[in-house]
Design goal:
It is a single chain. The protein has a domain at 26-92: Arc Repressor Mutant, subunit A, CATH 1.10.10. The chain has 5 helices and 2 strands. 45% of the residues lie in helices and 6% in strands. Helix 2 (34-41) packs across helix 3 (45-53). By secondary structure, it is mainly alpha-helical. Strand 1 (59-61) and strand 2 form a beta hairpin. The longest helix has 10 residues, at 69-78. The protein is elongated and about 50 Å long.
Length: 97
Amino acid sequence: MNTLENTSALVNPSVDGSAKNQNPPASDDQLWTTEQVGKYLHVSLKTVFNLRKKGLPYVQLGGAVRFLPQEIKDYLVTNRGLSAHRLRQVVRKGAIA
């Protein structure tokens, strides 16, 4: 017989069974914590704080800071930087006017 514990393990598996090591939520209707954004971006918490200062979008609910997943993804697309070498290659090929 399935118990609540067994079904929750199927829905939200983790390697060691703790809630700390979860990946960012799969659906875009949930808010991410600073830790989840750091894991998603593969950066430290300090880097996430610095990115917030530079324009990474966030929502402040009382004292809690949360992030909308779609806004994080959009931020990555719009703030994507090319190395100087790659930018020269793109300009030479005429992709950037």
